Amino acid sequence: MAALSDAMTKAIDLARDADNGRHAELLINDGPLRQTVIALQQGVRLNEHNSPPAASVQVIRGVVKITGEEEAVLETGHVEALTHHRHAVEALEDSVFLLTTVTSVPGAESHGGHVVTTGEMPSVRAEELDEAEQATAWREADQQTGGGRIDD
Length: 152
Known about the structure:
By secondary structure, the chain is an alpha+beta fold. It is 18% helix and 37% strand. It is built from two helices and nine strands, in the order H-E-E-E-E-E-E-E-E-E-H. The strands form two sheets. The chain has a five-stranded antiparallel beta sheet with strand order 1-2-9-4-7. The chain has a four-stranded antiparallel beta sheet with strand order 3-8-5-6, with no helix packed on it. The two termini are 22 Å apart. The model is unreliable at 109-130 and 142-152 (pLDDT under 50).
């Protein structure tokens, strides 16, 4: 079990020490569900990237700006569903946020895919990812973070 406060402190400390000013740590990896703590130093930007089929951002500390087709400034405590369009994320001050994603929903692809709006829940794969699917999930994460996992 991961303690969010410990992961948050570790992530911002590692981001401050990193040459690229960022750090990410995967906390939960359960089938298509991912929860990742991401820390960015002030001024660091995750370049424009595609959204997964479903995602939300909860700012734990700091202020981030999400740009793309729509723009939003999120402060500590704000939670926002991510758009299904390409977007970028910039830290307006040293920031930590929890990114929750669903990486595999049948019939729903990154930006522009099927979106459920009736309140019905789409079915998701329940089986564990095999090695090839895990490699695909990491490639998707690379695309989402603007060119590479940000915990390297």
